[in-house]
Each structure stands twice: as C-alpha cells, then as structure tokens.
Amino acid sequence: MARPTIARTASAEIEISRSRFLATAHRIGSLDDLPELVRAARRAHPDARHVCSAAVAGPHGEASRSNDDGEPASTAGAPILAAIAGRDLTDVAVLVVRWFGGVKLGTGGLVRAYGGIAADALDAAGRLARVPATELAGAVPIADAPRIEHALRAGGYEPALDYAAAEAGLRITVEDEALPAAEALLAQLGVRHERGRALLLEVPGPR
Fold first, then answer.
1. Residue 178: which of 129, 133, 128, 130 has the closest Cα?
2. Domain edge (last residue) among 126, 155, 173
3. What tens digit of pLDDT does each residue of 101-148 get?
4. Do residues 15 and 89 share a domain?
5. What's the rounded Cα separation, in Å, for the pair 85 and 91?
6. How does pLDDT run across 41-61, given as a tens digit for each residue?
7. Could you give phi then psi for residue 55, rounded to 5 degrees?
8. Domain for residue 1, yes or no?
9. Domain containing residue 119: CATH number
10. Which domain holds residue 58?
C-alpha cells in the first residue's frame, strides 16, 4: 500500500536561545519541486541565516533528499528527514528557516530544534491515507439518472454524471475493499458497468 501524505500546507514556529525557527510542510509531486520551494523561502525571508530542507517522494517513499544549508553536517536536513520518515509520509517537503540569535545551540541542540519544529509542522498539516481504489463506469437512461444518483449518494458514494442526448455516463470511485458492495448496489439499481482505472484514493485518517 502507498504511504500516506499530508492533507494541507502548514507551518510551526519556535524560538530557542534567541534563534527563531519557522518550519513549513508542503505537498510535492516529486523531488524536483524542492528547489523552487527553497528559492521561494529565500525570497520571502531574505534576512534568514539558513533555509534547511528535506523531502520524501514516491508511492513508497523511495526517493529522498535533505540539505543542511550551512549548518553543521547532519544537524538540520537529517533530523527534518527523520521527522518525515518517522511519520511514514511521502510526497512531502519540509523547509525550516532559521534566524540566528547569536547563541550557538551545539549539534545536539540543533538536531532537537530542527527535528522538533519539522515534526510540529507535519502534525499541523494533517494526514491523508492513500488506499487502492477502482473507477466503475456505466451508462443509465437520462430519465433514471436522478433516482440512481440519489440511491448511490444515500449509499455513501459520490457519483459523477455526464449527460448526453440519450443517456447519462456514470462514474464512481470505490475503495477496492468495498468493490463487492458497490457492484452489488449497481446491479440492484440495474446499472451495467465496467471496472476502469486503478487509482489511489486519499482519505482522512491514519490507516
């Protein structure tokens, strides 16, 4: 099963020994999205000392990247990456902007600061599970479409109808584990259908 991802962009902020840390978690399509996010953070915060980052991408989190941006090796990018991996997330980037306050935190302090604020941003971003799903497609007479749509919505589905001259195209996306029940309902409603594309459906919750 594909790893979950975050539900929304979210930020968290903390001040430690006069250094300010601002973390932002973003959805990404691939690691190629990370450089532009970093450039945007630099433009938004030109007075910051560091813009450290990490990202994980791919259905199973198979690709990752991190950058310490001038902090001591493995004290910034690695703990940000660990915060993502520790939540088993993918298609996520976290940027942590630091304004140096004049007090050195030491390697342990930096690891705790970067990892902790990254974790806070990820927790604020929420979580979407990705579950295997299948699109079911069929056609129904236009006169029957409202009744069938109502019955499907009452059953917890979200049908999409495409009206043509003689009939309405019908599509619903169903989690694979619920396919037998969905197909039984379509049969009960007299809807001939075919299984279409295999998809990943994003749903709230840990799963």
1. 133
2. 126
3. 989 999 999 999 999 999 999 999 999 999 999 999 999 999 899 999
4. yes
5. 11
6. 999 999 999 999 999 999 999
7. -150, 150
8. no
9. 3.30.230.30
10. 10-126
